[in-house]
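Human: I wish I could look at a protein chain and see how it folds. This is the protein in question:
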Amino acid sequence: MNYQKLIEMQKGLDQHIESQHQLENEDLFDRKILALLVELGELANETRCFKFWSLKPSSPKKTILEEFVDGVHFILSLGIECGFEKGIDYSGETESEESITDQFLLVYEIVSQFKESKRLNDYQKLFQAYIHLGELLGFHAEDIEKAYIDKNEVNYQRQKEGY
């Protein structure tokens, strides 16, 4: 996955949104954290991995991937917000679980750690844990990158339409 390309795309989208909504001087970190947590919940809801009481199957893989990349958008945006867009190594080992449910819980935990620390190390852990979640959901780097690019275009279109 070409992380630098995605970071640059996200930087452009963030600047566009901040300009359109007069947010250039706002600290958006906490709102982006909350947005990420909401997107993570929406993703979990589509997978239905925790719904032991239900027989209904998960959403189609395409829908789950679209929800997954919404999280990628906010994780990249948080990195940009913290000044981590240059020289980040996403290939390091991180904590991971083998159960999808446990991986969701781990990502929630790491989001909380990162919210408090705002440290590069915790950001990298978050990114790696989220990518591992995607792997557990059956996505490859190429799938994620393409879906991110597609969703980025949708996000620009939504801004034009007053979303």
